[in-house]
């Protein structure tokens, strides 16, 4: 029996790598004869750079950069030779074999996980650290930068990143200063930037960055119209400074990560690529599913959004397309539980306790379920 173990993170509880290890420890104990293939997943947020760099046998360098609240944080850049990437990735990203790729996860420098819940406020958070990482990658000779933009704490249009890269502003470009911002100038010579992104939101409006994601980052609902209006005004200044049309703000995905996608597209010519499709090609998921008898996946919450292009949902869809049994374990379910979708948290357990006990709860759920998996699969193999 061969099991593919491919978890995304359990937010505030377990990293993707740790979740995979919890399940693997259970299976090594209960089924020591099984072959296990551990494949941590990423949606472009936490651990994006680490997971992709490790998979391509690259090198991680850590740098001290500006965190989302201004304090210094340590964040990695992965360096990978294009020749070591699977051909579908080189084709998708239009890479020459000799190119040197830098892989950056925005969450490591500008992520929500770096801000305590009681201090989350997108009026005051900055992407400067992400820009500093891009600058370090440029200075190290990267010809292409792959940027994962999930898990951000920011809503600053990427202006903090642009400031770190040489763009000039007559005010520190934090959103709280935008009402006084009047002039933008300068520019930066940068490598090609490819943004891995599954968000299709435009920059502005009811489905834009501020309205859709701002409240998740601590924005008061009453402040949404004001910040969105300032975003529109400042985006117009940036488009004019870069010589780009304001219609760039309407591009699907421009609203990703508080608008950094729009800022980098306008000011640095960045392009977007579907995030999970890139990750799937990079990790060789289709082939790893094909080689497995059983797929085990999950994340902190599995709901309708998981089925709309996110990692575990896409993994399950591909597994079922290939006729493979797939089980999902989640801290909570936003869909009906069945024999293949499992909520690991007991009803009524307070969230803080559930988060603290997440490794234990996941291990117990995998142990309960995989005895049934084993018997069902064995029965299927005996069926003529």
From TrEMBL:
GO molecular function: glycerate kinase activity
Entry coiled-coil feature ranges: none
UniProt GO BP: organic acid phosphorylation
Keyword terms of this UniProt record: Kinase, Transferase
Keyword Acyltransferase: no
One Pfam family per UniProt: Gly_kinase
InterPro entries reported in the protein's UniProt record: Glyc_kinase_flavodox-like_fold (IPR018193), Glycerate_kinase (IPR004381), Glycerate_kinase_RE-like (IPR018197), Glycerate_kinase_sf (IPR036129)
Domain of life: Bacteria
Assigned protein family: Belongs to the glycerate kinase type-1 family.
Protein name from the UniProt record: Glycerate kinase
């Amino acid at each position: 029996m061969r099991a593919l173990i491919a978890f995304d993170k359990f937010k505030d509880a377990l990293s993707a790598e740790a979740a995979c290890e919890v399940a693997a420890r259970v299976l090594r104990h209960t089924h020591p004869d099984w072959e296990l293939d551990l494949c941590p997943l990423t949606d472009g947020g936490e651990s994006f750079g680490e997971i992709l760099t490790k998979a391509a046998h690259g090198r991680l360098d850590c740098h001290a950069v500006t965190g989302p609240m201004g304090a210094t944080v340590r964040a990695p850049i992965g360096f990978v030779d294009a020749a070591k990437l699977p051909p579908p990735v080189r084709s998708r990203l239009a890479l020459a074999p000799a190119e040197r790729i830098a892989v950056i996860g925005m969450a490591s420098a500008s992520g929500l996980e770096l801000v305590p819940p009681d201090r989350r406020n997108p009026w005051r958070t900055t992407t400067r650290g992400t820009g500093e990482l891009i600058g370090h990658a440029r200075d190290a000779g990267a010809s292409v930068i792959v940027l994962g933009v999930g898990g951000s704490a920011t809503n600053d249009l990427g202006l903090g990143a642009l400031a770190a890269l040489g763009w000039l502003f007559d005010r520190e470009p934090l959103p709280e200063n935008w009402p006084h911002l009047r002039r933008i100038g300068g520019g930066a010579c940068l490598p090609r930037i490819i943004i891995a992104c599954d968000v299709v939101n435009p920059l502005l409006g009811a489905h834009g960055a501020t309205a859709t994601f701002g409240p998740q980052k601590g924005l008061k609902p009453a402040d949404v119209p004001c910040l969105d209006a300032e975003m529109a005004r400042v985006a117009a200044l940036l488009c004019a400074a870069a010589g780009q049309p304001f219609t760039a703000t309407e591009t699907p995905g421009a609203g990703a990560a508080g608008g950094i996608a729009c800022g980098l597209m306008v000011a640095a010519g960045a392009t977007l690529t579907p995030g999970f499709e890139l990750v799937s090609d990079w990790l060789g998921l289709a082939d790893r599913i094909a080689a497995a008898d059983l797929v085990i996946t999950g994340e902190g919450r599995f709901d309708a959004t998981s089925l709309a292009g996110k990692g575990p949902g896409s993994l399950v869809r591909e597994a079922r397309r290939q006729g493979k049994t797939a089980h999902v374990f989640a801290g909570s379910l936003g869909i009906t539980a069945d024999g293949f979708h499992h909520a690991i948290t007991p009803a009524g357990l307070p969230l803080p306790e559930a988060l603290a006990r997440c490794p234990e709860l996941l291990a117990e759920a995998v142990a309960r379920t995989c005895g049934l998996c084993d018997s069902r699969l064995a029965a299927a193999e005996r069926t003529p």
